[in-house]
Design goal:
single chain, 268 residues, mainly alpha, Arc Repressor Mutant, subunit A, two-stranded antiparallel sheet, 11 helices, 54% helix, extended
Length: 268
Amino acid sequence: MTLQLKHILEAALLAYHEPLTSQQLAELFPEAERPAVHEIAAALAELQTDYAERGIELKHVASGYRFQARAESATWIKNLWAERAPKYTRAFLETLALIAYRQPITRAEIEAVRGVAVNPNVIKTLLERNWIKVVGHRDVPGRPELLGTTKEFLDYFNIKSLSELPSLQEIQDLEATGSELEVQLQLLDAAEDDKSPRKSPLPPFAKGGDPFTKGGDVRADEDQFADDAEVGRFTEDSAEESEVGRFTEDSAIAESSKPTLEEKQDVL
């Protein structure tokens, strides 16, 4: 019966599209032939051992037992689906984390922690995914809804209970490690930039700067416009002065070329 029981449980778990509990597996058998709970547990343990070195595994999650592909194969298996995995916003993840770690919790309490209003679409999406549910109402004026996670939430994250969630200290350690890695990557990028050949810099005035200022600082646009206007006025004034000068000179030449009164009398 042990071998047959293991084969029946294996077939049932592979055929059904959702996890099955020990009670559901026991109900597959007629009451007269129904195996004991410890017999089902032993058969399931043997199945887990049998699949220990295979591409799929028997996993115990919140909703029961299920066969699933191992995480190591995700890189290749995901190509079977055309759609890409959804990317969740920071607000979405923060709201979900607060519900998971501080449940039961109200929307007002979430807003108090995050410091911003809860986006109704975030709560709507979590409810539609059946990751959270209303578990009660706070006994205060208005009786706000209390939110908590569901078994589907635990199944999605491949855990059996909330106690398997990473501790807040572990999350902080991961964030600190991520920050250190980011700093190291920035330093590596800076080192690579230093090794790369550099082009000779253009003179400051070639880039729109003032060659007469310290360090070739680029002037503000309004200063440059003021300089251009000043140059324009200088050029215009110079042109006017030149024109006046030419007019004065021409007048002097014309005046000097006129015959004097004595010359006129001599002519007469």
